[in-house]
Amino acid sequence: MSMDIVDLKPSLLEDLKKLYKNLEKDNNNDYNVTIKVEQKSFRAHSVILKLRSGYFRNLINNEIRRMANMFNRRITLEISDINSEVFASCLKYIYTGEFSLQEDNDFLFDLFIAAETLKLIDMVDYLQNYFIQNKTKWIEINLIRVYQVSLNSISFNELQVHCKQIIDRDPKFIFLSDSFPTLKRSILLDLIKRNDEFLTEIKIWRHLTNWVHEQEPPINRDTQNWSPSNIIDFEERIRDFIPHIRFFTISSDNYYSCVRPYKDILPQKLVEQLEKFYLVKEATPPPNALPPRTPRRLRRNISTYSTRSPTEPTTPTEPRLQLQVVF
Known about the structure:
Residues 285-319 are annotated as: Disordered. By secondary structure, the chain is mainly alpha-helical. Among the domains are: 200-292, no CATH class; 294-327, no CATH class. It has helices at 9-22, 46-52, 54-60, 63-70, 84-96, 105-117, 121-134, 136-141, 143-150, 157-169, 172-175, 185-192, 201-214, 228-238, 252-259, 268-279, 296-306; strands at residues 33-37, 40-44, 75-79, 196-197, 294-295. α5 packs across α6.
């Protein structure tokens, strides 16, 4: 810094903090924006909101807000997708550059989402790194929610990569989550398409049917008392998943107790092939049947082999493999 320039920014920041605290005083009229969030109203200054938040900059600069300014009227904004307590923390940050990490993880994650909505980029970047570096266990427990949120904005890309690494390492975090019924269809389909054995096939089938039952509107779990509309709805929901279930790797006992009750929603040809496979001695799966999923330890070994340079020599006991592993 040049010796000719005096840096008194700390004093400026203290004045902004005072300005923020004065907003809460009943007799304070030095504001021109009222923001309604849930049942609460917040006072603010348009010039600070516009300077600090891209969201407010766009909101305030539209034609209606400019007309309000021309007539020297206060601007009223309504925000419907942010919790009022979370917004209070965002507004404090806008004025002071401060927010607390002493809140619980759910609150901080809501704050993270709200910061992206309000385009508070520095807060987004800080909280994203904070969760990745310090809250991996919490992310694993809440993986479905966190991962699905991370898909909503390019600003969440680092968190999305982190979640994908957890899922690739062990997809069971997804299937065993209490939030499993809320998982998006496309994500579940991608997981079931995997070739590695992250769960036994019958457990994958059970989780899948449970997921189908829980979608809105829920479908009666008693298949013996299904109405024609239940059959149609269930079949439509599960249709895209059926080609990726390794039915012929399921034991006859599990087939009878867990798969056969759903035979009305399975393709008729598949049902016939399965019944032949289980009932006819020496019967084998049809040529188009999917093979068993690759055990995860073997999958890792194959990945190691497949990344070897094509020109790198192998030992006599190590066969040369040219495999492309599909995940």
